[in-house]
Design a protein that fits this description.
Layout (H helix, E strand, L loop, with lengths): L3 E5 L3 H13 L4 E5 L12 H5 L14 H6 L2 E4 L3 E6 L4 E5 L5 E5 L2 E4 L3 E3 L12 E2 L4 H11 L4 E5 L3 H12 L3 E6 L11 H13 L3 E4 L3 E5 L6 E4 L2 E4 L2 E4 L3 E3 L2 H6 L22 E3 L6 E2 L6 E2 L4 H15 L13 E5 L2 E7 L2 H6 L4 E9 L10 E9 L5 E8 L3 H13 L4 H5 L15 H15 L1
Parallel strand pairs: 1-2, 1-7, 2-3, 7-18, 9-16, 10-11, 10-16, 11-12
Antiparallel strand pairs: 4-5, 5-6, 8-17, 13-14, 14-15, 19-20, 21-22, 22-25, 23-24, 24-25
Helix pairs in contact: 1-8
Length: 449
């Protein structure tokens, strides 16, 4: 019988683990521990507060302390877990006042998340250089923006693109520096990345590709970034080198780790140690197309994993099958979405592909407000099954990515997707749905290949 459940980490995965554990087991004691001052806030919303789309950072807090009390979840903030003793079955922690405490557990969930990767750039310790991961990061950047006129973002992943958007929205002269040959290299193929980059540049952000940041210059305070012998001036520099799993506690416990030292878990989110579960950005998961391990650092994945971990930690049964890394974002006046594999990722996995790209409108051209949309579908050549999709457009990107995600999970062929029964009305959609039209084109190219 599970008597005490301790969850370490109180963001997407941890909060959902604690809530689900309580719902699964009404009698157990549930304790939720976080190092931060606030629990349960949206990290994904941070750039949009900086951009002025959300009034204040406090609006990102999704659950108040009163909610946890009503759920009979003991929330401990500003508390650091130092170690977990498997033999004694205790969680050893230190509170803000330096008071040490040893808490017994029957099962524990590690939802320790991730931390920003430190880019190996000379001068990155200077004042004015920051990353965006926490509420406190957001507050520091917001304060620095008051006096800033020029900004540089290093790294054109999702986070970097959203930060560049936020800075430009606040009227800052913004440069986005990326060392690879395209933006969103892990999300889009180059053909679609070019479409997105053009839209970003049209909104005033200078994008510099194949550019390696050699040094952050300035005497104590950052004044710019040296790139290829030239200095790009900046009053504020934001680093977006990705994130790395926070797996130190799991490693100390002896849990097996995999990609980038992420914790290995089974489909029940249990680690290699009995009674120890893990979920969220600190774990690796299975790619639903290739069956290979992958890092899926997404809020949608974290909450689902957290629920599964919470059910099982409380004595129930639930499984997490894996992820397609489906993602979407809106910057400026357009949206970008992706699911499954890109062509490059499929090639690395040894899957020959055929792909199709189609440009269309979200509504009939005669109807006011019709917006451009570009859809790409990636198909496994040998089987005809859909293994990836990418969409860029002015609206309704999410539902098209979701449609392709379902098609991939159902192992639908491109022919089957082209025959999906879709709806139509001039104010909301075209007669021919752009996703099914792209599938029809991909099917034609597949037969010719």
């Amino acid at each position: 019988m599970v008597g005490q459940i301790v969850v370490v980490g109180a963001n997407a995965a941890g909060v959902n683990a604690a809530i689900t554990a309580r719902r699964t087991n009404r009698d157990a004691d549930v304790v939720l521990i976080t190092e931060e001052e606030e629990a349960a806030y949206s990290r994904c919303g941070l750039p949009y507060v900086l951009a002025g789309k959300i009034p204040q950072f406090g609006d990102l807090i999704t659950f108040s302390p009163n909610y946890f009390r009503s759920m009979r979840i003991e929330l401990q903030t500003k508390t650091s877990v130092q170690a977990i003793d498997l033999h004694e079955k205790t969680v050893n922690m230190i509170h803000e006042d330096r008071r040490a405490e040893s808490m017994p557990y029957d099962s524990v969930v590690l939802a320790t998340g991730a931390t920003p990767s430190i880019l190996p750039i000379k001068g990155c310790e200077k004042e004015g250089v920051s990353s965006l991961r926490t509420l406190n990061d957001g507050l520091r950047i917001q304060e620095a923006l008051v006096q800033a006129e020029k900004a540089v973002v290093i790294g054109a992943n999702w986070n970097g693109l959203q930060m560049a958007y936020a800075l430009a929205q606040k009227g800052k002269k913004t440069t986005l520096i990326e060392s690879s040959s395209q933006i969103l290299a892990e999300t889009l193929d180059s053909s679609m990345a070019n479409v997105a980059q053009k839209r970003v540049e049209e909104n005033g952000v200078k994008v510099s590709l194949g550019a390696v940041a050699d040094e952050i210059v300035g005497n104590g305070r950052a004044k710019g970034v040296r790139v290829g012998g030239k200095v790009v001036g900046a009053d504020i520099i934001l680093m977006s080198g990705g994130i790395r799993p926070r797996s130190e506690l799991a490693v100390e416990l002896g849990c097996d780790v995999g990609l980038a030292d992420a914790v290995k878990v089974d489909c029940q989110m249990q680690t290699s140690m009995q009674g120890v579960f893990a979920a969220g950005d600190c774990v690796e998961t299975q790619n639903l197309v290739t069956g290979m391990p992958t890092l899926a650092s997404l809020g949608t994945v974290a909450v689902k994993q957290g629920r599964v971990a919470g059910v099982n930690a409380a004595g129930g049964y639930s499984v997490f099958p894996g992820a397609l890394c489906s993602s979407v974002s809106r910057v400026f006046d357009f949206e970008i979405g992706s699911t499954g594999l890109t062509e490059d990722q499929a090639k690395r996995a040894g899957l020959p592909t055929v792909s199709a790209i189609l440009n269309a409108k979200t509504k009939p051209e005669y109807f006011p407000g019709a917006k451009d949309i570009c859809v790409k579908i990636v198909v496994e050549r040998d089987s005809g099954r859909i293994i990836g999709g990418q969409v860029i457009g002015g609206e309704e990107v999410t539902q098209r990515v979701n449609m392709m995600s379902l098609a991939i999970q159902c192992q639908a062929t491109v022919w089957e997707l082209s025959k999906v029964d879709t709806c139509y009305a001039p104010p909301v959609s075209e007669m021919w749905e752009s996703t099914t039209l792209t599938a029809d084109l991909a099917n034609l190219l597949l037969r010719r290949s």
